[in-house]
Amino acid sequence: AITLSPVSAQPATRVHLLGEGMGASVLLQSNADASGIVITASSTTAIGSETTVKGLSIVGTGAGVNTQNGIGIQSTAYISIADCEIIGLATAIYADNYLSSILDHVLLEYNTNGFRFEPYVGATGFSESNAITMISCVIGHNTNYGGWINGAGTFNVIGGSIENNGAGTDLSTSKWGLKITDSGGQVADSASNGFSLHGVYFEGNGGKAQLWVEQTVLTAGLASSIVGCSF
Fold first, then answer.
1. What is the mean pLDDT of residues 207-213?
2. Which residue has better confidence, 97 or 106?
3. Which of 51-70 are b and which e, b meaning 16 or more Cβ less than 10 Å from the residue's Cβ?
4. What 3-state DSSP class applies to 99?
5. Residue 122 pLDDT
6. pLDDT at 91 over 70
7. Could you tell me where the beta strands, DSSP code E, fall in the chain?
8. Which carries the bigger pLDDT value, residue 71 or residue 1?
9. Alpha helices, DSSP H only, in the chain?
10. Its pTM surpasses 0.85
11. HSE toward the beta carbon, residue 99, CA cutoff 13 A
């Protein structure tokens, strides 16, 4: 695995992994028990990393075989992932204590799970994963689910598609297209703006639902929007 460990300093450390493009620059993760790229802070308090990962293919040993992540992120912010594809991993992108970041034209396909973002409650000064924007991403053909975000505020998905995730025709609660749990904060109220889905194409997702929104905690004054999406 390639491990990036930014430190909390000014000026901020800026690490960029820049490839020649999807299919041209390939990170082959042949060890099924290791992640492709790990971005983690030097402490459990979320810090700005100013990290960019762009123009890469990250390829694992196959869904159901690889047990790790394509990109694993912990306790970091201001991360840009663009023009990348992640294929054949357990979870293409897993993140906790992750915020203020952009995923632009990222393909998450043929993994066990597409992406999962959640809080890391063991951190000092932790943040729920929030202020994340996904633009024109393609999330498809993942065995269990396309995406699951837990506890986030200001989560935006603009364009792109979430399709053919959750193999099979059963109504399994372990399969879906996109699942959004406890918008605005799972552990504490962190945002009044929950999520915004604008122009997202949903099709052919199996399991529980194409889009599954659930609240297990009360968040006062929470506002979310679904505009121009196709199901």
1. 95
2. 106
3. bbbbbbbbbbbebeebbbbb
4. strand
5. 62
6. yes
7. 2-4, 16-18, 26-28, 37-40, 47-54, 57-59, 69-87, 91-109, 113-118, 130-135, 138-140, 145-150, 155-158, 161-163, 176-181, 193-198, 201-203, 211-214, 223-227
8. 71
9. none
10. yes
11. 21
What are the beta bridge partners of residue 193? 223
For the CA atoms of 107, 108, 109, 113, the dihedral, rounded to the nearest 10 degrees, stands at: -170
Place of tokens 């979430």: 162
Tokens representing 76 are: 């970091």
Q: Is the pLDDT of residue 121 over 70?
A: no
28 or 6, greater pLDDT = 28
CA 176 to chain centre: 15
Tokens in use for 63? 């869904």
Find residue 203's DSSP bridge partners.
Answer: 163
DSSP secondary structure letter of residue 220? T
200: nearest Cα among 164, 165, 228, 166: 228
Residue 125 above 60 pLDDT?
A: no
pLDDT at 47: 64
Do the beta carbons of residue 117 and residue 150 sit within 8 Å?
yes
